[in-house]
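Shipment paperwork, digital attachment
Item: protein structure file
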Amino acid sequence: MTEDKLHQVALSLIPKVGPTLSRQLINYFSTPQVIFNTPKGKLAKVPGVGEKLASLIPNQKELLVKAEQIINDSIKKEIQIHYYKEASFPARLLNISDAPIVLYAKGKAELNPVRTIGIVGTRKATKYGLQITEDIVGQIKAHDATIISGLAYGIDVKAHEASLHNQIPTIGALANGLDKVYPSGNRNVAAKMLEQGGLVSEYPIGTEADPRLFPARNRIIAGLSDALIVVEAAKKGGALISANIADSYNVPVFAVPGEIGKTYSEGCNYLIRNFKASIFTSFKDVVEALNWDIQATAKTQSPELKYKDLQGDEKKIVEILLKNGQQMHIDQLCWQSQLSMSQLASTLLQMEFAGFIKPLPGKEFRLV
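Attachment content:
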C-alpha cells in the first residue's frame, strides 16, 4: 500500500467533494498525498473548491485510518482497487469528467476490453423484453464484446444470465460495496459472473445499497459502454437515466421499439421519438454505428484517392477527419474547421448525400 493510494481512497470518502472535484484536485496537485498536506488557504484558491470545501480536506487523520481499513478489508475479500491514472483503471472512464477516482472490482473481468455493450431496462420486464434481451446477447457473441449492466431484476439480470449462457464476459455495476450483492435474489448469478466477468463499484466495502446511489451507478454503466441498448423502460426510471447519461457522454444509445400504450414501452418510444436514441431492429444497427463491420482484410480504396476530387469545405472536413481517426463529434469538427455550425451542418449533409460520410448517434460523423 503506497501513501498515494491510501490518500486517494481517503479523498474519495470525503463528503461533498465528489468525483469531479477530486479528479480536478489530483490533476492540479499531481498526487493525492499533496492535497492532504496543502494548507486550507491554498486549497481554497483552487477553482471550484472555496473555503467551505477546503476546510474538509486537510488533516483528515480519521479518514486515513478508515481508508487503510478499507484497503486491508478489500484485500482479504479479494476485491481489487483500481486508481485513477493507473494503467489498470478503465480507460473509457477517463473520458468522462464525473467518473470516480477509485473503482473497486471483483472477479476476472478485463476492465479495458476491446469492445463493450451496455444493456439496461426495466425491473418489471415482460416476456417479450426478456426474450429480446436473450436475442440481443446471442447476436453480440459473434463480435467478442463484453456486456455491461447493473445486476438489477428484470432486463439487467437477464442480460447477465444470457451472457453466462453464451460464454460472453459480463460486468455488473453495483450501487453498494462489493462485500454484498443487491438485490440478494441475484447472488447466484453474481457468483457465476465472478468466473466469467465480474462486479464493479465506486463504493467501498461496507456501503449499503441505497436508491439515491442508483443514478451514480448508472453513469458507470454508461461510461463503460461503447453503445447502450435500452430494451424496455417506463418513461421514468433508471434505464432512462442511463440513456440520458450515455447521450451526454456521446455514447450511442439504441432503444427497442415497444407496443404503443404499454407502460414499459413508453420510455423506449419516448427516446426514439425525441431523437435521444436510434431505433434498434437488430444488432446490425449497432455494428454499423460503431464501425465494427469493417474487416481488416477488406480491400478498400485508399483515403487519398477516394477523396482527392473534393474541394473547399468538404476537403477541409475530410482532412480533419483523417487526422482524428476518421470519426469526430460535430462540436469538435466545428471548432477545428472554424466553420459556423449552420455552414458545417449544410456541408455535412451534402457529403452524406454524396456518400462520403455517415452520421452516427451522439452527433458523431464518420468517413465512409
